[in-house]
Specification:
There is one protein chain. Strand 4 and strand 5 form a beta hairpin. Helix content is 44%, strand content 24%. It has a four-stranded antiparallel sheet with strand order 7-8-10-9, with helices on one face. The protein has a three-stranded antiparallel sheet with strand order 1-2-3, with helices on one face. By secondary structure, it is α+β, with helices and mostly antiparallel strands. Bound molecules: zinc ion (ZN) (2 copies). One zinc ion binds next to loops.
């Protein structure tokens, strides 16, 4: 007998499982009945409750079964192919009777599979004249005829067969410990007829979704659902950090022209002039290098640098521009540094949030304070 079968066999099998899975879900929900609170509601509201409780999980069940269908069928077929290959490559060897040394008759060659899906062939032989038996696996391990030994004392026990028209009774008796047992084989015991599931095709159409629906579900689950989840988390996060979010939203976004106008005007009030912006570098943000001259005579390097930094920080407060962390350098009254302009308010929000240490909050006016 070959294991591998026509693909439709596996498709039917998979769909039968899907149908059974969905039916049992509906059965469980229906048996549970409506909670008392819901029973008091109008029919329409009861229907809505049922939809949420039954239909929505059912939708996911059907979709998930669809997503696993192709691979599962493929796996099943490969496994059966593997079984057939194993049988074909492990034919029964010839065995000789230990008593008369004649060739023994092969009675059974059977594929066995353990719970880890490891495959083994079992071969059983018999010598008709001397009634000798012999059995082993393809890896050489001998097979123990468990029925030949008393389970209590493990000594060989006696067997007697009593045959009638309808049954064969095997009586076991142990001469060593007196243990007795019997096994009845009912000859009228026919394999149970497969019950025909007359609703299968109808339910299959209902629960085994089409490729179109299935691919829609795949998209929904791969893209839409995570996106919805992300949006929900984002909303929750912004609700939690409401003040920071407001502050980020109200940040003044300056273009490069607006920035240089603002700086030139305000810096001259602090005795810095001749602002030049160069080396614009476009990344996710805009990074620029600036130079400016100190016009206040007698101001030394240390004061010049700290005054400029203070003045810049004040000017850029609540805008999308920042002095970069590499600071301001000074040579003979020429100061230079880098500024970073953030285009995306989401980035401003994320950075503001990051600046918060544990135990700090942002007040309504946008200040960070310790709790
Ligand atoms: Zn023999
Ligand atoms: Zn015994």
């Amino acid at each position: 007998m070959e294991y591998i079968r026509d693909k439709t066999y596996y498709e039917d099998l998979y769909d039968r499982h899907t149908v059974e899975d969905c039916r049992s879900w509906i059965r469980i929900c229906t048996e549970r009945g409506l909670p008392d609170g819901v029973k008091k509601l109008s029919k329409k509201e009861q229907q809505r409750f049922c939809n949420a409780i039954i239909e929505l999980p059912l939708y996911f069940r059907k979709g998930d079964r669809y997503l696993r269908r192709k691979d599962t069928i493929q796996e099943w077929m490969e496994k059966d192919k593997e079984r057939d290959d194993f049988i074909a490559t492990h034919p029964a060897p010839v065995a000789y009777c230990p008593k008369c040394n004649q060739k023994m008759k092969l009675m059974v060659d059977e594929l066995e599979e353990d719970i880890d899906n490891n495959l083994r062939m079992l071969f059983m032989y018999r010598c008709d004249p001397c009634k000798e038996k012999k059995a082993f696996y393809n890896d050489g391990e001998p097979y123990v005829f468990k029925n030949d030994f008393c389970p209590k004392c493990r000594k060989e026990w006696e067997k007697k067969y009593i045959k009638s028209k309808t049954k064969v009774v095997t009586k076991y008796s142990c001469l060593n410990c007196g243990n007795i047992d019997e096994f009845v084989l009912d000859l009228n015991d026919k394999p149970k007829k497969e019950t025909i599931d007359s609703d299968f095709e109808k339910d299959r159409a209902l629960f085994c979704i089409s490729e179109k629906e299935g691919e829609d579900y795949r998209r929904y689950k791969t893209y839409d659902l995570p996106e919805m989840k992300r949006l929900a988390e984002e909303m929750e996060d912004k609700e939690k950090h409401k003040e920071i979010y407001e502050q980020a939203k109200n940040t003044k976004k300056l273009t490069i022209a607006e920035l240089s106008d603002l700086l030139a005007k305000k810096l001259s009030a602090d005795d810095f002039k001749g602002l030049v912006i160069t080396n614009t570098e476009v990344t996710r943000d805009l990074i620029v290098t600036f130079t400016v001259q100190d016009t206040k005579s007698g101001r030394d390097e240390g004061h010049s640098r700290s005054d400029l930094k203070k003045s810049l920080t004040k000017m850029l407060d609540n805008t999308n521009w920042k002095v970069m962390s590499d600071g301001v350098s000074y040579k003979l009254g020429l100061l230079s540094g880098r500024l970073r302009g953030i285009d995306d308010k989401e980035v401003i929000y994320a950075e503001l949030k990051e600046e918060l240490k544990p135990g700090q909050v942002v007040t309504k006016s946008g200040d960070i304070v310790n709790l």
